[in-house]
Amino acid sequence: MSRDIAWKNFWEDRVENMISFSDIEHAYSVLKPLVHKTPLLSSRTFNSITGNEVYFKAENFQRIGAFKFRGAYNKIASLTDAQRRAGVVAHSSGNHAQGVALAAKLFGIKATIVMPHDSVSSKVEGTKGYGAEVVFCGTTIDEREKKTDELIRQYGYTLIHPYNDPQLIAGQGTVVLEIFHDTKDLDYLFVPIGGGGLVSGCAVAAKNLFPNVRVIGVETEGANDAYQSFREKRIVKLTKVNTIADGMRTSSVGPLNFEIIMKYVDDVITISDDDILPMMKFFFERMKIVVEPTGAVAPAAVMKNSLRMQGKKICAVISGGNIDPALLRQIA
Amino acid sequence: MSRDIAWKNFWEDRVENMISFSDIEHAYSVLKPLVHKTPLLSSRTFNSITGNEVYFKAENFQRIGAFKFRGAYNKIASLTDAQRRAGVVAHSSGNHAQGVALAAKLFGIKATIVMPHDSVSSKVEGTKGYGAEVVFCGTTIDEREKKTDELIRQYGYTLIHPYNDPQLIAGQGTVVLEIFHDTKDLDYLFVPIGGGGLVSGCAVAAKNLFPNVRVIGVETEGANDAYQSFREKRIVKLTKVNTIADGMRTSSVGPLNFEIIMKYVDDVITISDDDILPMMKFFFERMKIVVEPTGAVAPAAVMKNSLRMQGKKICAVISGGNIDPALLRQIA
N vs C: which end of chain B shows fewer Cβ within 10 Å? Predict the structure, then answer.
C-alpha cells in the first residue's frame, strides 16, 4: 500500500479544480433533506476476528437500497430548468437506474432508462415503479451507449452518466461527510470500485476530513480494471469481466474518476468472488442486514487484510443491498 | 379492541406491586451499558400503504439477535452471589437459550440449557458458542421441564424462566424505555405474544410512559392461547400449536404474564401464518433487514388492521432476526 510521490504531484496538478471538497459540501446541502443519513454499524464479532475497530457505512439503507441516489439527485439538481424539462436518460442494469428514476420522480421530470433486455426483472420493475420509462437494448455496453446516444439526439435528453461526472461524483462523496458526522478519526477507508464514481467522491472528501486516513479502493479479481490502471498509471480497459459483484462489471473507470483515484486513493486492491459470499452470510446471520455482493466487497477486503492491520480504526462502505432472490437462496 | 372496566379493576388489584414501572427503570440502569440501543426504523412505502406513521423497534439488532438478552441478563443480575456461583439453567429451543447463555457468560457463571434433541443445529451451536452447556431431552414441553427439574435438584441451579418471572419481565420492558427515548407519543404499540414475557414488560412500561397508547398483543392463529385467554378471562392452554412463528409455540402464557396482560393490554388479536412471509419479504427486499417469523408478527398485524387505523402513530416491535436458512430459501 505505498505511493509514488512524484506521480502523486503529477496527478495533483491535473485534477486541481476538477472537483473540490466544497463541491461535496454543496452537494450535501442539496441532498441532506432527501437522503437517509445511513448508520455506521459495527459488530463485536467482526472486530474481535479482525483485531480492528471496524465500522460499516450502511448505504444498503439508502433510498433505492444503494448510494446511487445521492449522485443522481445532485446531478439532476445541477441541470438548468430547460434541461430538466427536456428530461434525462441513463443506461444501467442496476442501482444507477433506480437512483436516476427516483431522483427524476422527485423533480417531477421525465427519465428514460436504457436497460439490457436480459436485466433482472426485479430491477426493471423497481425502475418502472419510480415512474421511469424503460427502453430495452442489447446486452453489450456498446449497444447500450448507441441506444442512449440515439435517444439524446432524438429527444434532447441530458445524460446522467453512472460515474464519469463531477456533480455525480460530488453527490457520492457525501457518504463520507456523514461518516465524519459520526466519527472524527479514521486510519483506513475501504471503498468498492465499479466505474469509480463512489470511490472518487469518497476519496476527495476523506482526504479533506480525515488528515491521516488511507483510502483503499477494492475490486474483485474478475473485474480488476482499476487495480491494473492504478499500477500501470493509465486507464486499462478489460475486454471481459467475470464477477458475482454486478456493480463491478464495468470494463474501465472513467477518465475523471481515474485522475481522482490517482491523486487521492492510496491503494487499489482486489479480493476474489469466493470472499464475497461468506461476508454476505456474516452480515445476514450475525448482523441481520441484507448486503448485495458489491456491497460486501469492501468489508471482505478488511477481513482479508486484517493480519496486516491491527488495532486500526477502519470504515468500509457497504454500497448497497439490492440482492437477486436467486443469489439469496445460494447464501441461505 | 374494547375493554371491560369492571374486569380491569379486578385485575388491577391483583397485579398491584407484582411488577412496577420502577422495576423496569431499574432494569434499564442495569442493562444500559450492555444492551444495544436498537433503532426505530420506518419505511416511506409501509407508511404510504398503511396510511399511518409506523415505527419498527428493531430488536433483531439486539445482542444474540433478539430481545431475549434483556430479560435474561436482568434476571441473572438480580440473583445472589451464591445463586450465581451455583449456576443457572433454562429450557428453550430458541432465542431464550442464547440470551441466557450470553448473560451467564458476561457474569462469568455456568449456564446449562436444556434443548429438545430436534433443535435447529444453528441454535444449538449459537448457544454452545456463548459457552453454555447444552443438555438434550425429548421434544415435548413436559420432557423439557422434567429434565430441567432434575438438574435443579441435582446441582442447585437457578431456573431462568423464559417468561413467567418478574425480573425477566422488567428486563423485556426496557424495550419500551428505548422507544420512549426516540419518540414521545404513540397511539398504538403492537407486541408479539409467545409466553407473554415481552408483552407484559412492554405493556407496563407503555402505560406509564405513553398516556394514550393502546397496547395490542399479537399472536398467530395456530398458537392463539393468549387470544383465547384474553377473551375467556382465564388461562387457556392449547394441546397443540401449529405456526411458522417458532417464538409463539408456547401452549399458554404464564400466570404472571396473564395477570399483567389482563391489566395493561388493550386487546389481543391474531394474524395467520400467511401474513408472515410477505412481511418478512418486505423487510428483506425493501428495508434490507433480516426478520424472523415471530419478529414479523406485530408488523404484519399493523398491515392487516390498517384499514381500521388511519393517520395513527404506531410502533410495532420486531422481536428478533434469527431465521433458519431453510426458511430463508423459502422467502427468497
Answer: N
